[in-house]
Amino acid sequence: xxxxxxxxxxxxxxxxxxxxxxxxxxxxxxxxxxxxxxxxxxxxxxxxxxxxxxxxxxxxxxxxxxxxxxxxxxxxxxxxxxxxxxxxxxxxxxxxxxxxxxxxxxxxxxxxxxxxxxxxxxxxxxxxxxxxxxxxxxxxxxxxxxxxxxxxxxxxxxxxxxxxxxxxxxxxxxxx
Length: 176
Prior knowledge:
two-stranded antiparallel sheet; three-stranded antiparallel sheet; alpha+beta
């Protein structure tokens, strides 16, 4: 780009899709970190390096089933994993969609295959909804770390637990 070239116009829609894509990758990193905190099986941890979000969630659930964590820690981690699954589904709806202008002429609609032989399911989505999902993933990543830490490292001598997030606040409009 030369100095005479006009800067490229920004596209908030594509930026939001990109932000969700990055948030999804960061969620995978957080799930791998959680797995390394709650599973002490090197083979499983190595295998997890090449897995997708769904498989990482399954591995974490497996580690909870066969591990020796306190029931309250299992409950907190399980709640985080349920939220991760919801975020994964919403992310996939956005990232793997084919987009077209909304019928109303405002915004876009995501077309996702129901099954290859049945056609598409269409759902409207806005840039604001995409940005909100990326923010939700950021909050979830913090909760995943806290839950994993409190279940394992915080129980060791000289370490302490992280307190729960204070409710009533927001991150970019998302209640915390």
